[in-house]
Amino acid sequence: MPGRSRRRLAFLVAVVAALTVTARGAEASFSVRQGRLDNGLEIYVYEDATVPLVSVSVWYRVGSRDEPVGRRGMAHLMEHMMFKGSARVGPEEHGRLIQEAGGVANAFTTTDATVYWEKVPASQLPLALALEAERMANLVITPEHLASEREVVKEEYRLRAQNDPIGLALDRFHAMLFEGTPYAWTPAGFLDDLDQVTVDDLEAFYRRYYVPNNAVLVVAGDTTLEEVMSLAERYFGPIPAGPEPPRPAVAFEAPRRDAGESAQPLGRFAPLPMAIQVPGILAGYAVPGAASPDQYPLAVAALVLSGGESARLHQRLVRERQVAVFASGGILGYADAGALVVFSFYLPGRRPEEQVDALLAEVERLAQEPPTPDELERARNQLAASVAFQFDSLDGVANLIGSAVVVEGGIEAFTRGIQPYLDVTAQQVQEAARRYLVRANATVVAVVPEAAGGPGQP
Amino acid sequence: MSLSLDSPAVILLRRASRWMQAAALFVALAAMLAATAGAAAAASAERAPAVWLPPIPEVARPQEVRPVALPPVTTFTLDNGLEVVVVERRDRPLAYVLLSVPAGAVQDDPALPGVARMTAAMLTKGTAGRSAVDIARAIESVGGRLDAAASAEEAQVSAAVLARHVPLALELVADVVQHPTFPAGELAILMQQVQASVQQQFDDPGTLASRHADQLLYGDRHPLGHFPTVDELEAITPERLADFHRRYYTPQGSRLLVAGDVEPQQVRDLVQRYFGGWQAPTAARRPLPEAVRLDQTRVRFVEWPGQTQVRIELRQPGPPATADDWLAVSAYNYVLGGGGFASRLMEVVRSRLGQTYDVHTLYEARAFPAHFALSTFTRTEEVWSTLEVLRSELRRFYDQGITADELEQAQRFFILGYPMALETLADVAERIDRALGLGRGLEWVSEYPVRVAALTVDEVNAAVRRHFDPERFAVVLLGDPKVLESAPDTIWGVPLSRVQRVGRTEVPKP
Question: Do B56 and A89 touch (CB under 8 A)?
Fold first, then answer.
């Protein structure tokens, strides 16, 4: 096939080889090429010429965890202001130029990072890099743009946090689970705080964090490291490094307890009455951050619990006991802390306490009943297949790389590939369950219908 | 590396922890408005740049537009009439199987809505040789996915697997489509899930406003207008599902697409083995729906106390995706509200006025005449002024049409961005399947850029005149009813006394 990337093909063959349970020692590591500019900008390039596209992303090491008191939500507001232009680029023109070139542009803010990305035809790589460099160096923040964009961001807040039961439940969940740490608030922030943010606040935030030595450039697609380095030198090279931005580690110790006692009290529980028809439970156990080696057995545990309809939560709660209509879960992984999260929806009329107990009991059963050989093989194959499908999308690969470097402790988190997951044993899953998945470590938010006739009922 | 399976749960968690510049769904459509960008650039050109950087490259114009080269495609038809399409995309070890059967909701007896969708959903819940658990284990053990669902036109069963599991994928798809048994116990479990999802319509303001708008335009007996209720689920029995299956799941009229790292000859053998014995009499099918009429504007207010925003949904009839001028329609929609930050509505309502986070428009692409939709929301106190702005922008759009510049921006995006539409295996497979499903040939997919390049302003503005009506809409507002106290005398020209008011969990049966 013309244009096929040998590197990528070799990797995928390795993944497939790793699928057979007998091929346990098979290599499944991923390769990426890297460079660095003198001003500190880190560069990672994944070369794949299968389609004539490139995915470009700039990851800044700043997120909601870096917001000061009284300015919660500022990182996300800053992200919006990054589209409002410079002396050479008009408001929202960045996106329009990219789209005119046949690409798309967007950005997102998490607790740990703010990420700006473009996907463009490979021939438009210079345009994407020039525009990213321009807003890294020359953004102009005006009171008029702040005034209108603040309202846009508040609309997003109302949409996703205020008027959406799931958004509200997640906010409450973070506040309880990560109480006392910067993970206790989400990138949504608070409406009152958003109103307080000034042009000066944003200027200072921009100058402190939006410097090349605090950024990571990831390019995946039909290009080479040599081409990217040469273009990056041209467009980002003139931008001076700034002082190293502060990044205090989030002091959060995931509890380590033994599941010896059977009748441990629940960690934290909050009923959240809302005007909803279908109640739900959101529960989570604090686990270490994404750079911890414990993430591997915990990821396998999450798959055994919720990797499809043959997984434990669906089998037990939806099919056998028929107490829930939906039950699933996954890992929320932040740099310095995380949570194994499970949730269920159930038909009105049942007691939330019964739901909580059924859900948590199924999670905690992993400590007594480790994965069977079948369950473990299924989890491994699901991991391998999901990675193969993720590599079918350039954004998917670029995300894996950026997240490894900025959130998971370094590029090795990417290049190690899936082998650490494939190496996880049933005993390691059981040990992780005993350590982390115990009742006293659980935080639960129960979204329950408001009493009939209460506020919100028509 | 943190890995995840894209289960609904994980998608939801990831989405919930990401705050974005733009809503993800529509950002893929955008182009530049030269006039507004110029004005905006002037407004911010007060300060000299802090760092001198090289000039920003000009966006290159599309050169000599040519058809795209598709992967090799082999087609053949089994003796029983099943049409088979094999798409060889060999550069990734993946495969995608998609079976489309003309057994969508348009085949439902209007007195028994929901049967077509439930029949499709029950296919994977048990066959003559496999239980629901057997099926889930079989596909999940190899890391694959198997889904079955029905739309208005079709029922579709799809499987995504690593390429070496194509035999298993074809065997499972063949089994669930030919030999489902609709076990009563499984139906009871699924029914609870469906009941919950029907009720969850009322927990999501966006979904609820959309359902009301569709119903207001189409009425309840049209597959796109039907508003599902818990009550109607009671009429669904295993016998009714089996009967629907017997009647409409036939190889004649169905299409099987197999795409990825596959050998056509191997696929042919496998398809013959698993689908060759599929026999069923040709069904007498109901015709696709006719166009609906909207003689005057209708307004419905859905009362949801406590909401801090008002949802705004507009609908009006639109052409089928098979229309000769469909590309002209796509082009003007892109300029009006389908083009993200380059669209006129986004520029005015979000970028200039800060009244919303998202406003977008679309033409629903169906094999039958469907609709135009405009969706947005705004903080409660702004709703009346937002409606006025929308109304005047729609009027201006109709009166003036689009400019040559605007068309060129749209063409650039569609042409230069076409490789993005064909990036992943699923992208390619679904694009080809969709074209075939609409009765277009493969050349529709390959020649798309050439057709877009040939569009003229006159053609596009003629399409505006033909299909777009600046006045008549089905209008749904959803929010706290207190806002009606500050309402003007008329909403979109309809006197307040004629505005239909419905409670949050009420389903009007027109």
Answer: yes
Q: What is the least distance, in Å, from the CA of A440 to any CA of chain B?
A: 23
Among all residues of chain B, which has the CA nearest to that of A54?
B420
CA distance B292 to chain A (A): 32
What average pLDDT does the segment A408-416 reach? 94
**Mean model confidence pLDDT for chain B:** 90
Confidence label for A160 from pLDDT (cuts 50, 70 and 90):
confident
Among the partner-chain residues A52, A101, A159, the one whose CB lies closest to the CB of B309 is: A159
* Residue A205 pLDDT level (bands cut at 50, 70, 90): very high
Contact residues on chain B for A388, CB-CB shorter than 8 A? 92-94, 162
pLDDT of residue A266: 74
- Looking at residue B352, the DSSP 8-state letter turns out to be I
Predicted local distance difference test score (pLDDT) of residue A389? 92
Contact B196 A97 (CB under 8 A): no
Dihedral angle of Cα A284, A290, A291, A296, to the nearest 10 degrees:
70
- B352 contacts in chain A (CB < 8 Å): 148
pLDDT digit string, tens, across residues B118-127: 999 999 999 9
Closest Cα in chain A to B138: A310
Whether A150 shows a pLDDT value over 50: the answer reads: yes
CA distance A118 to chain B (A): 11
Q: DSSP characters for B86-153?
A: EEE-TTSSEEEEEEEES-SGGGS-TTSTTHHHHHHHHGGGBBSS-BHHHHHHHHHTTT-EEEEEE-SS
b or e along B387-407 (b: 16 or more beta carbons within 10 Å of the residue's beta carbon)?
bebbbebbeebbeebbeeebb
Q: What's the pTM value of the predicted model, to 2 decimals?
A: 0.90
